[in-house]
Specification:
The chain is an alpha+beta fold. It has one domain: 3-Layer(aba) Sandwich (NADH Oxidase), CATH 3.40.109.10. It is built from nine helices and four strands, in the order H-H-E-H-H-E-H-H-H-E-H-E-H. A four-stranded antiparallel sheet has the order 1-2-4-3, with helices on both faces. Helix 2 packs across helix 7. The longest helix has 25 residues. It is globular, with a radius of gyration of 19 Å. This is NAD(P)H-dependent oxidoreductase. Belongs to the nitroreductase family. Pfam families: Nitroreductase. Keywords: Flavoprotein, FMN, NADP, Oxidoreductase. Its cofactor is FMN.
Amino acid sequence: MQLLEHLKWRYATKKFDATKKISETDLNKIKEAVSLSASSYGLQAYKVLIVEDPEIRKQLQPVSWGQSQIVDASQLIVFCSYTQVGPEMIDSYLNLKAKTQGVDPENLTGYGDFMKSKIGEHSDESMKNWTARQVYIGLGNLLAACAELKIDACPMEGFEPDQYNTILGLSDKGLTATVVATIGYRSTEDATQNDKKVRKPISELFEII
């Protein structure tokens, strides 16, 4: 199982080589891996920003605890979850489903009503938590895809979401920054690349009931 070897290779890269850039071909593979991520009802209630503009990244660095990855990595990936999932988003998904699978939209009405009913039960706070959880599945696929391509990545929660929302104009779009990841290639000066991976023993992490 090559995935295990890829995952053993990867680590949260602390220092990137700013001179090395990810090819468009590899970036497209990463994007497709994220797009294939599982999500509740298949709604994909999030948006993924690929920030390459150096000036915007300079603005984001101070509100990312000053971390160098924000400006040095090839790309900064910002996973943004929708703060609300309304009937319009559900209808849009059902139309796409009908078109993609060759299904009569009328046959999806009952499913759509069920989705709207269940999702409508969320409070504002639980809605934000629910959409945020979808984002992390996409992040996991991004990390695995990068590892297979031997592209370094660092998932990061050390940033100020409200400031990201302001700088990137997310609030006006009904989005909020949930988690970010920097991707690129490790610097030879990154001392942490040689650290042994620290994980709980399998026997401690898992329990068969």
